[in-house]
Amino acid sequence: MADMKINVNAVWDGGVKGNGTLNAEYLDTKIAIPTSLGGSGNGANPKEILVSSVTTCYTATLTFVLASKNLPVAELTVNSEAKISDNEFKIIHYPHIVLSKDATEEQIQSSQRATEAADKGCEVGNLLKKADVKIEIQGKVSLK
To answer: What DSSP character marks residue 96?
Structure first.
């Protein structure tokens, strides 16, 4: 991987019940402590930001894998869900790849395999796996 420098700025106001902003080159969002922890809940919480990061990485990696296989992708969506408990942090990605109506069976199978390949290639997901976060892929491929 090439060297990379990322700058992120957080500004907070109002103590625990307050909120803040999180800014980077292409990111501008409100942040807050969840109401379940006594905060205002008026912004994204750290775990949402973390799951958003790994979802973005997975989606970008999947897009790259699909393009490298020259698959006839008409649409791609990825929904992700985190299940967090005292003894487990699990993220489930639900990619849905829609191929053009004339896609072959081989292209459908290749798209399904791409969902797993993207999981293996996602750098953010791989970092989280080293911290014992479980990541699962439940992909779906359909035709337009």
So the answer is: E
pLDDT by residue for the chain (144 residues), tens digit each?
Answer: 689 999 999 999 999 999 999 999 999 999 999 999 999 999 999 999 999 999 999 999 999 999 999 999 999 999 999 999 999 999 999 999 999 999 999 999 999 999 999 999 999 999 999 999 999 999 999 999
| Token pair listed for 110 | 């290749």
How far apart, in whole angstroms, are the C-alpha atoms of residue 72 and residue 4? 32
DSSP-derived 3-state class of residue 102: coil
Closest by CA to 91, choosing from 132, 61, 60, is: 132
Distance CA 54, CA 130 (A): 13
